[in-house]
Structures are given as C-alpha cells and as structure tokens.
Amino acid sequence: MPHIDDSYCTFNDMHAMVALVGAEDWKSAARLESGLLRSRMQGTRYGETTRLVGLPVCRSILAFGKGQYARETEFLSTVPTTARRMGGSQAQRDLLYLTLMEAIRRLRRPAAGVAA
Fold it and tell me: Can you point out the beta strands (E) in the chain?
C-alpha cells in the first residue's frame, strides 16, 4: 500500500490489483484505478503502457472480482495484442487469458453461489 501511487510499473499495478481484489479491498482498488486514470496521461513509457494495457487489465480484474463478467470481457478484449508490453513472463501474462476464459465460462453457465 505505501507504493500504490508510485506510477512506475504496469506489471506491478496488475499484481497490486489482483491482491486488492482478492482481499476485497474495494476502496484501495478504486484508488489504484484513479491513479491509473491520471498516469495514462503521462508522456512516458509508463503512461503509454498504462493506456494500452494497465488500465484495461486492472479494470478487468476489478470487474471480475465484482462478478461483472461481461464488463471484464469487454476490458480484456482490447488487450491481447499489447499484453507483452507490460512485462513479465508469458506464464504470468497467461493470467489474463485464464481470467478471460473463466469470465466467459461464467457468462455462459452462471452457477448459483460461485464466488468471484
């Protein structure tokens, strides 16, 4: 949390959002999203990766955590061709694909009582 506003690394932002959503810390997740909205305007590499990847990915993770699967798929559908720009390994970026596939599965077959 001390580094939530650092505006430094898209890969870190994604992992922070996963942790915040997993902890159901919606206030901090909203704070991170607000910071990304500001950061996307920077004329830096970070600003560019935030615009292209970071903001849509973090919004998709937030939507998934709240059970908003259609919204999650909408956000993530814009990312696949640019996901490599955020860094990390292919295995780490696979988290996006796996999350998208799970959201689609839940949209097609909503199960009662499935926790997000």
Answer: none
pLDDT tens, position by position, 37-77: 998 888 888 888 888 888 999 999 999 999 999 998 888 87
Any long-range contacts for 65-71 (C-beta under 8 Å, 24+ apart)?
A: 65/21, 65/22, 65/24, 65/29, 65/116, 66/26, 66/116, 67/116, 69/103, 69/104, 69/106, 69/107, 70/107
If you write DSSP's letter for every residue of 27-49 in order, what string do you get? Answer: HHHHHHHHHHHHHTTSSSHHHHH
Q: What is the DSSP track for 60-74?
A: HHHHHHTT-HHHHHH
Q: Return the residue matching tokens 């580094």.
A: 3
Percentages helix, strand, coil for the chain (3-state, rounded to 5) are 70, 0, 30
pTM of the model as a whole: 0.81
User: Measured over all CA atoms, what is the biggest interatomic distance in the chain, rounded to whole angstroms?
Assistant: 45
